[in-house]
Each structure stands twice: as structure tokens, then as C-alpha cells.
Amino acid sequence: MPGLKGSFSSSMVSSTITSKRIPRLGELKTKASEAPQNVWKWAKSNPRLVKRIIKCAVTLAAAVTLTITPPLVSFHGKNPFLLGTTAIYLFPNKSVGGQIVLTLTAWAGFLSGLAYTTLVLFLATLVQDNVPHHAISPQSISAARRGMLWAAFVFGAFWCGYVRSKHPRLYLSIVFFMIVNMFALIRGISNFNFVVYRDYFYVMIIGGCLSMLISLCLWPEDHSEVLKGGVNKALTEARQVVLEVEKSLWSKGLGGVVDVKGLSGAVKGLGLAFRETDYEISLARVDARCLMSLASKLETLLDLVKVYNCGVRARPVSMPVSSGELDEVAAEEEEDIERQSAHTPECPSETNKRRAISFAFLEAVRIIDIISDRVQDAYTSKNGTQNSPPVDIAGIERNRQAVEEWLVQERDKRTDSDILGLQNGVGLEELAFIDLINSIILELLDTVYAAARSSNRITSTGKLRLFLPRRFRKIVGEEKGPILPTNSRPTTSAGLSTSPTRTEYDYEFESPPEPQDNEGAEVSPSEIVLLRPQNKWHTTVALSISRSLSSIKRSRHVKYAIKFAIVMGVLASPAFFGANYIWYEEMRAQWALISAMIAMETTRGMTFRTAGMKVCGAVGGGIFAFITMEISGGTKIWVNILLTFFPIGFLVGFLVNNPKWLKAGTVFALAFNIVIGVGQTSINHNTHAALARRLITLPIGLMVAMTVHVGIFPFHARAQLGRAIANTMDWLHHLLYAIELSSEFSPTDYSIKVAPREFGDVINQAKRRVRYANSLVPATRYEISLAGYFPSDRFEGVLDRLGAVLLLIVGETGILRGTRAGDSCIPVLVGPASKGMVEAWGREQLLASLCNDLLVLSHTLAARLYMPRHHSHSAIVLQGYTNTLRDTLFNESVTDANLADLGRLCTLVNEMNLLRDEIDSLIVQSRISPKAKDMFPEMVAAAVGSGCLSRTTTKSRQDVELGFSRAGTPGWLTPRCTTPAVGMATPRSSTSVGGMVTPRCSTPRLNAPAIASPIPRSPTSGAISIENWKVKKPHRDTEDRDP
Predict the structure, then answer these.
(1) Residue 48 CB-half CA count within 13 A
(2) Tell me, what DSSP letter sits at residue 622?
(3) Torsions phi, psi of 1020, nearest 5?
(4) How far apart are CA 414 and CA 433, in angstroms?
(5) Cα separation of 186 and 192, whole Å?
(6) Rounded CA gap, 573 and 889, in Å?
(7) What percent of the chain is helix, strand and coil (3-state, nearest 5)?
(8) I need a surface site. Which of 201, 509, 692, 968 has the fewest CB within 10 A?
(9) What H or E segment, with its residue span, contains residue 284?
(10) Alpha-carbon distance 997 to 999, whole Å?
(11) To which H or E segment does residue 997 belong?
């Protein structure tokens, strides 16, 4: 019976497994039968991608055909596979203009390499006279000749590394320059003929012409199509965002954050498309300059919506919306959509705010649709824009005026109860939020109005014209500048810039230009902030020399150039000793140099990623080449060509057209071309030897490259990311300090404020650090570190918060202009009274408190250690400033004041609190050691669970704890010349009294409120005692540690 039970149970199990397998087999059969249909649907939905895949497959097959065909091998010289190498690096998966520019770049690189090697080999013949060919032996080659060739090779590698790090667009020039050098100079050890152009000139010219011919003949693409698609996509996303903002205003009761991911991605892609116009030749009906002003308005629209989201996040909680109002608004929205579809919107009533705003937004949507149609006609119509009437902007201007009039009337209806927040009053914070949202609404309408005016400048005759790269037109003087209004430039975070294109890494160590001040002139506050030197020739020369030496010492371009030269010199050095050049050539050891050159990225993380891609691509390409040669037997060339086109060519085309697998696809094609080329052209078609040599040289090159990259001048992207963010907060601190100085009264006339002439330098530095930090995030994902898990997502959140803080400080329109050093750029926080907004005494203290927060956060993140510290005092200072402003308005009986500046300050304080929480969570998650967690569990719990005081404590509790009287005079305001400010850092000249900062004495502000006696700091709000905290110092410098 036990045996029967066992057999019965086993049969049951087998039947169960079989019953599970049958559905799986059925699913596999169904998927296999539907695969052709799915592939066809995918091809129909991605026509451009399919065309590019086919062009890459044709290029690879043609290059292999020209490489392995016997009559052409002897014509190519000693390096027939370089034809395929050139064609692969120049795959026609881009526009014709981009193909021309890249081809010229590659040709410039190998021609420069030919010129350099010819010169070096000529000088080498002067070192040692020619030796008869029959008498050449390792002993006959002098050490001086070997040393000179090796030194020349390393010298060329050094400058190639510097150029590669400094100018990434010249990457192909560097690659082909080094390829020519590594073959010509190593072979030049025993070859005394310095004329070597025939071995490289024809093969690389033919490879470049092959890719160019296929790009021109098979579905030629123009960059104007990419630009047109980018503009249309951005306009579509802008239309959707405008509708979402209008729905958020009413349907969600100002409680929903508008999703701007689509618009942000579209604007970023449009910026990249405009950047390519600087270097690409285009054949189009419209000049790209005509679209740059429209693109800048779309970027402004994106910034406005981001500020709107910041305001929504900081919205007071006491703003309910009834369900009856929502139903009424929904019914009105349906009627408005019907009117919008008929393009005949009625004039909104001045007594209906919601209908006025809804009509204005629907008119903005209609304008965006008309702009999109005009752009489409300009690019596609043979008549151009001649038959397209200009965009009628009278409607949106009329609606915008109606909205503004209604908002002014709404402010006029405010009462003292609303200001003081008594009984059913709204309260000052709520009114400030409403004014901020109203100002954003008006600026949104103004932006659409400006976009409509910019679209009217888009002109086209319908005839195709050839447009040279914008960089070239600037050099020859044809282009004086973009067609833009005089008060704006398309210089945005998405890359819409007319300045020279540079990498994000260039901004980290670049010093600002020397200011030109007149000797003996009065020093302005902005000059104090920017630490401008005196204009004396010996000081200028000394500073220039000091800055040059300092920039060379800490330049990452120089460090990378040294590492690149070391890698190339180490891998090439065996060939320059004794008779090693013989086996070096037989083993094809130059392939190790090529592997190391491709893997040597500028950052450690990207080097690891590229090395992994290199291994996958090289092994896969070599194996596929070996299989192809085995199938053809080495005699049927047509089989090799057919298999190269399909399926190998289609696989390579799919990989190289995917940005994620671009490196792997390129290396796959290179390895396939080298192995099949060497194997087919060898005497015995020995593909085994070619594959073995490729697999042997691959790890050698990668190991040397990674060892040198990690061991010499290691660039830790994670550490640099933390420093870049800390430097960004430092420059934001300088910017807020300059704004604070601009609020000072003149010492001679107390009714005039001293405003700095320039903020552009500080804004420029802050924006550079943000761009640099964003460029480092991808490298941190692939960086290997013994420190453990690295929260890249947390750092992205910190960068998002910093971008929002920068927008709130500079302004959504000010950030688009004046970004070059010395340009005039006034942040939106400067001079609110000049913009029709109110301010009160104590605003400078709030800015100083925000400066203090930025300094503390910068130090915390730079040290990358969680420390017990005070909560932010900015929320407390903001409450005091709000009370002061409320008392001032109440005493002067002003109820219709514009409180948008207060709303922006409240939003800024809230974003600073969010930034503080992000940094605390980041540090707790990544840097607190297990010992610290065990010793101080309350520290970790406080860091994870607590936020800023303003977010966890109610206002009434704050008032009780800190002695605030909501309707009275705030007790924290004290004369600046007698009592120190609590919890605030003032960067001006000050003295330390009892561990506190006492600002310099200055004349009290006019119309300042009555000052109460200072409140002593309570034990709960004072400094945390550190007697019981025994925290050991780190064993190494924190500057060298990863965040």
C-alpha cells in the first residue's frame, strides 16, 4: 500500500505539472502566431525608426562587402577593416546635415592624425638614418628612435584626452586621430618610410562616402523635420498644461499640482534640437532663428506652471470649495468647450471672475492651436505663410484686460476683517496666496500673448533654402543674433542658448570674467557681494596668473588627459622594447588600445557602464562573425553579405538607434567587422585566430583603462554631486544676500534704496551649478562604491527643490534673460514696491534667515553627516513679518494692497522646508552608520519623522511658545544696532557676542513698527547640549568621501 500511495501521488503531481504546462505551451503558440502581426504594427507605428534600422543594415552590409571582396582588398592597403570601422562610426541614423558635419569631423581627425604621424616619422628618420630593408632587425633600431616615437604617441594621446573632455563634440576626431597614430607609429618602429597616407587615406575616405551616400539616397532626413516635430509636440503639451491649470483653478479647488513632465520633456527635446542647429546644415523653408523666440515663450510657460505648483504646495489649508460651486463650474466648462470649438467665444462679464478666467484660458488654447497650424503651414505648404493670416491677438488681449479688471475689483472689496482674519475673514496668508495665483494667471496670459506675437514673425516663402550652421553664420557675420525681442533671449535650462555650446562639466571650475570698474569709483553693494578686485595692472596680471595656475591644477580636463595618456602609453609600451613589435603586430594588440580608448569615459561610473557595454558588444559581435564564417565556409562571400544584412544588420540597427544600447550596438558592429574582415582576408580564412585575438585583447585594454581611471586622479561622481549641490546653495545664498542689500536705504537719502546694478553674475553661477549637478546624476547610477547604496532618487529630489527655489528667487521671466556675466537681470524679489506690491519692515530679516538656512544646508550636505541642529527659524521670522505687514496695513487702513510678494515669500519658505526635509532624509538613508543608529536611535527617529517647525507645529502653538501676539506687535523684532538677531546669519560685517551674531549698526527703517523688548530664548528653543554627544571625528577628510 505505501508503494501504491507513492505511485498515486507521483501520478497526481505529474498530471498537475502537465496541466500547467499545456496552457503555457498554448500561450507560447499564440504569441508565436501573433508575432508577425505585432512586428508589423510596431513597424507601422515607428516609420522613422524602421527606416534608420534599414539604412544601418545596408551600410554594414556594404562596408563588409567592400572589405572582404578580393579585388578591393589590395587597394585598401594594410588596414581593410578600417573602411567598415569608419562606416560604422558614421552610421546614417541622423539627418543629412548632421551626417555631413560628423563626416567632416571624422575626416578632420584622421587627416590631422596623418599629418601628425608623417611629421613624427620624418623627425624619426633624422634621429636614425634609413636602414636597408634586408638589414632591418631589432638590434638595428636605435633606442632614440623608439623613445621618440613612444613620446610622440603619448604626447598626442594627452592632447586627445584634453580635447575629448573639453569638447565632447570632437569625439570622432579624437577616435580617428588615435587610430591612425596607434597603427602608424607602432609600425613606424621598423618602417623607415614616413609616407603612410595610402594605408589610411583611401580606406577612411571610402567609408565616410559610403555612409554619406546611403544617407542621401535612402530616405534622406532633414533636421527641420526634427525641429518641426519638437515645436508641435511642445505646443501640444503646452495646450494640455493650460487646460490642466484652468481645471486646477476651479475643479480641484487649488488643491491639485499640474503635471508638467510632458511639457518639460518636450521643451528639453526642443532645446536639444535648437542646439543641433548650431552645427547642422539644413534644407528647409523656415529659418530656425524664427522659432527661437517662440521656444523661449514655451520655456517661460513651463517656469510659470512650476511656480504655480510651488504655490499650490504652500497653499493654506483653510480654502474650501463647495460641491455646488464645482457642479456649476463643470456645467460652465462644458459650454465653454463648445464655444471654443466654434472659435467664437463671447466677451466675458466683468462681474463673473470664473467665467472671465475660463474664457481667457480657452482663448489661450485657441491661440496655441492657431500657432501650431501656422508652424505646420510654414514647414509644409508650398506657399509658406503667405496665405496664413497673422494670429489675431486682440481676443486674448481683451480677455486678459477683463481678467485684470476683475481681479482689481476683487482686491477693492477686501475689508479689515479679511486682513486681520477675524470671524469670517480670509486672513493675510490666504490673501497673499490668492494674489500670487492671480499674478501667475496674468503672466500665463501674457506669455501666450507674447507667443502669438512671436509666431507672427515666423515667415516662409514656401521655397526650400539651404541654411548653414548657425555657428558658421555667426563667424562670417551673416547672423547678427536671433530674431528676438530686445528684452529677452532664449537662454533657458533646456539649452535654448545663443552662447557657445559647452558641456556641463565646464561650468564647475570656470571663473567669472574680470569686471571692469573705474578706479576711484564708489563701490556699490553688488561689488561687495561679487568681491570685485581693483582695476590695477599688476593686480590684474597677478590674479590672471594665479587663476590660470589654479584652474590647471584643479581642472578635470587636464587630469583626464593625464589618465588617457598613461593608459595609451602603458598599452603601447611593449611594442617599443626589443623585438616585441613583431608579435605586437601579429597579435593585433592595437585592438586593446581601441578597447581602452572607447571605455575611457570622463567619469568613473560611465567608464564602468561603457566597459560592460564593450564586453557584451565585442563578445556578441565576435561570436556572430564566427558563426557567419562557419556557415559560409570562407568561400561563399554572398552568404556572408546576406547574413550581414539580415538578421545581423537589423539587430545592429535596432541597437544603435536605441540611446540606451548605442555603445553596445556600435561595439557589436565593430567587432563583427574586424573578425569577419580579418578572417575572410587571411590566407586560410582562420576566423578562430581572429576571434581569439579579439577576446584576449579585450580584457587587457579594459583592465588597464579601469585601473588607471580609478587609481589616478579618481573622479568620484557621487562626491562631486554633493559638492555641486552644496556650491549651488552657496551661490543661492550670495544671491539672496545681494537681494537683501538691494533693500537697504541710501545713507544720504532714506527715501532711496541702493539697488545693485548687476545680478547676472550670481544667477549665472547658480544656474551653472544646477546644470553641472544634473549632468552628474546619470554617472552616479553606474558608479561602484564600497560605501553601499547611493540614493540617486533623493539627489534628484534635492535638485528639483533647488530648481524651484531658484525660480522663486529669480522669477519665471527673469531666469530667461541676463544669464551672461555682466548682463542686466533683476530678480523678482528685488523691489516689490516698484512692481505695485507692498512690503514692510522685517523683510530683510526674513531674507537673512533664508540665507542662514542655505548655509546650514550647504554645510550639512557637504559634510555628509547628520548632526543634531536647530529647526529652521525662517517660518518663525515669516510669521513675524506677516504680523508686521498686517499691523501696517491695518494702521494705514489699506485693504486693497497687492500681496503677491508675501505669497512668493511664503512659497519660498515652504520650498526651503521641503528642501530641508529632502536633505535630512537623504543623509539618514545613506550616511548614518549602524553604530550611530544603535547609539542614538532618537536622532534617527527625529531625522526621519520630523520636519521643519513650521510644518509640524500649528501657528497658534508657535505664537504661544515664542511670545507672538497675532494682532499685536511681534516681540522678535529688535533694533538692528542694539540687539542681536536670533537664529539668523547676516553676512555683513558683524561681531560675535556670546556665541550670537550681532549685525552692524544701521539707521532704523522709516515707518517701522513699535519695538517691544526682546524675548529671551527658552531652553527648549536654545542650542542642544552636546556634552552627552560623544561623536568621533571621521578618520579621513570628509571632502574625499562619497555622499
Answers:
(1) 11
(2) H
(3) -75, -30
(4) 14
(5) 12
(6) 80
(7) 65, 0, 30
(8) 968
(9) strand 282-284
(10) 6
(11) strand 996-999
Query: How many Å apart are CA 440 and CA 446, to the nearest integer?
Result: 10
Question: In degrees to the nearest 10, what's the CA dihedral of 976, 978, 982, 986?
Answer: 50
* Cβ atoms 240, 301 nearer than 8 A: no
Q: Residue 844 contacts by C-beta under 8 Å, 6 or more apart in sequence?
A: 740, 743, 744
Q: Please identify which residue in the block is written with the cell numbers 547640549.
A: 1025
Phi/psi class of residue 256: alpha, beta or left (left: φ > 0; alpha: ψ in -120 to 50)?
A: beta
Q: CB neighbours of 949 closer than 8 A, spacing ≥ 6?
A: 871, 872, 875, 876, 958
Question: What's the sign of the alpha-carbon dihedral 936, 940, 942, 948?
Answer: positive
**What residues are paired with 996 via a beta bridge?**
993
In 3D space, the residue among 826, 865, 881 whose CA is nearest the CA of residue 1005 turns out to be 881
**Do 942 and 924 touch, CB atoms closer than 8 A?**
no
Place of cell 523656415: 286
CA atoms within 13 A on the CB side of 106: 27
How far is CA 467 from each of CA 55, 282, 288, 294, 377, rounded to the nearest angstrom?
25, 5, 9, 19, 19
Q: What is the pLDDT of residues 930-969, one digit of tens each?
A: 444 554 455 555 544 443 333 333 333 333 333 333 333 3
Q: How far apart are CA 381 and CA 232, in angstroms?
A: 16
CA separation for the pair 253, 320 (Å, rounded): 7
The alpha carbons of the chain give a radius of gyration, in whole angstroms, of 34
Tell me, what amino acid is at 685?
A: H
Residue in 880, 860, 882 with CA at minimum distance from that of residue 870: 860
Closest CA to 147 of 178, 113, 130, 123: 123
Rounded Cα gap, residues 810 and 380, in angstroms: 39
The b/e string for 61-79 (b: 16+ C-beta within 10 A; e otherwise) is: bbbbbbbbbeeeeeebbeb
On whether the CB atoms of residues 811 and 827 are closer than 8 A, the answer is yes
SS3 assignment for 818-862: CCCCCCCCCCCCCCHHHHCCCCCCCHHHHHHHHHHHHHHHHHHHH
Query: Cα separations (Å) of 279 from 272, 273, 877?
Result: 12, 11, 51
Average pLDDT, the chain: 75
How many Cβ atoms from other residues are within 10 Å of residue 253's Cβ?
A: 15
Instruction: State the Cα–Cα distance between residues 721 and 711, nearest whole angstrom.
Output: 20
Check residue 210 and give its pLDDT.
95
As to burial, measured by CB atoms within 10 angstroms (0-12 exposed, 13-18 middle, 19+ buried), residue 305 is buried
At 797-808, the pLDDT tens digits run 999 999 999 999
Residue 923 near residue 864, CB atoms below 8 Å: yes
d(CA 85, CA 105): 15
- Among all chains, which residue has been given the C-alpha cell 480654502? 319
Tell me the per-residue pLDDT of 307-331, one tens digit each, with 9 for 90 and over. 999 999 888 755 444 333 444 444 4
The whole-number pLDDT of residue 193 equals: 81
Question: Please, are residues 428 and 886 in contact by the beta-carbon 8 Å criterion?
Answer: yes
Query: Locate cell 542650542: which residue?
Result: 1023
Cβ(569)–Cβ(151) below 8 Å: no
Backbone φ and ψ for 282, nearest 5 degrees, come out as -130, 145
Grid cell 537719502 — which residue? 749
The percent of residues in the chain predicted with pLDDT above 90, rounded, is 34
